[in-house]
Amino acid sequence: MKKFIAIAGNIGVGKSTLVEMLCARMHWEPFFEGVMDNPYLADFYKDMRAWAFHSQVFFLARRLRDLRRLRDFPGVAVQDRSVYEDAEIFAKNLYRRGYISERDWRTYWELYQVLTELLPPPDLVVYLSASVPTLLHRIALRGRDYEKNIAPDYLAQLNVLYDEWIADFKLCPVLIVPADRLDFVVNGEHLDLIAQKIQEKLRGVQLVLFD
Fold first, then answer.
1. How many domains does the chain have?
2. Which pTM does this prediction carry?
3. Residue 133's CATH number
């Protein structure tokens, strides 16, 4: 079965962990987000206005490479964060806050539009939704130095954009996981439930999303 699943969600929500655990359990292939090798990321968190455009273009280029690999993969591939989030959430938020100039935004958005027109969408988006306190707690637990000064209002603004994006997203089915209440890291039953819902969605089963 050839399928492409994208795991979406805010910083610290547990995307990479879910990708890793799902793929280990289901024998699927993980495609992880290139965070640690982004040469601009540490500078970006120190000075967003100076480095926002550079960092977002890096992520977009990396996503293009990953999407090519995903398109050619013969089995079930699970991607840690989608190209849609790069543009519709993170780059758009930086532009709205004045960290990306109008000229740079037009260039970036045109590149993103061409990219999404050329490449096929996922078969399923799994959106991990979590409150800001949950995100801050999980960010603190993983202890990345460049994330320790992320402001709560920044995460809250990203959450608003995530909700807007998911509400309007029509390219493929979406499964919304309430990550405040489902802790798939410590509770195996929660992971079982998420895996079951994903399989049902991929089979086209009409189901009620989590209450």
1. 1
2. 0.86
3. 3.40.50.300
